[in-house]
Amino acid sequence: MTADFTISDLRNTPQFFDTVADRIWQAWWKRHGVPDAYIVERLRENMQGTDLPIALVAHRGPDFLGTASLLVSDLDERPQYTPWVAAVWTEPDARKQGIAPALIERACLEAFSRGHARVYLCAAPPRRAWYESIGWTPIEDGVGALKLTVFVRERPEAV
């Protein structure tokens, strides 16, 4: 299938800022009582400079389809690992169209282009098979209170 969407750096598409902040907050932070203002402040860090963190946006013209971030750290229990692909979200009506894998791939390329040899990602156990199917290698299971799986992806030799 040919991609009929674009992946942009949020710095270049600030019109999606509020939507990205809302999706990240709703998906991962609201249930833990974290105020949405906290996520807005963290996301503002993505709007400065040219290095990490980076927020990516998948969109079809003006329509938001999904997001993913590349962060210095995403798991307090593993500060030695960096950088991390995080906050991967696809709108429900845009799922199963290759958007999440494309966002993840772009985040990895951003890391590799900055000289990183590895990229990390963590996910709940039910997502393990899916991440393995798109090229991630699990390196730890049962990490932290949420019993997450930590994955790694190595930079290809040609990069």
UniProtKB/TrEMBL annotation:
Key word Transferase present: yes
Lineage, top ranks: Bacteria, Pseudomonadati, Pseudomonadota, Alphaproteobacteria, Hyphomicrobiales
Keywords recorded for this protein, A-Z: Transferase
Pfam families linked: Acetyltransf_1
Organism: Tardiphaga robiniae
Keyword Ion transport: no
PROSITE patterns, sorted: GNAT
Name by which UniProt lists this protein: Acetyltransferase
Ranges where the N-acetyltransferase domain occurs: 11-159
Signal peptide positions on this chain: none
Top-level taxonomic group: Bacteria
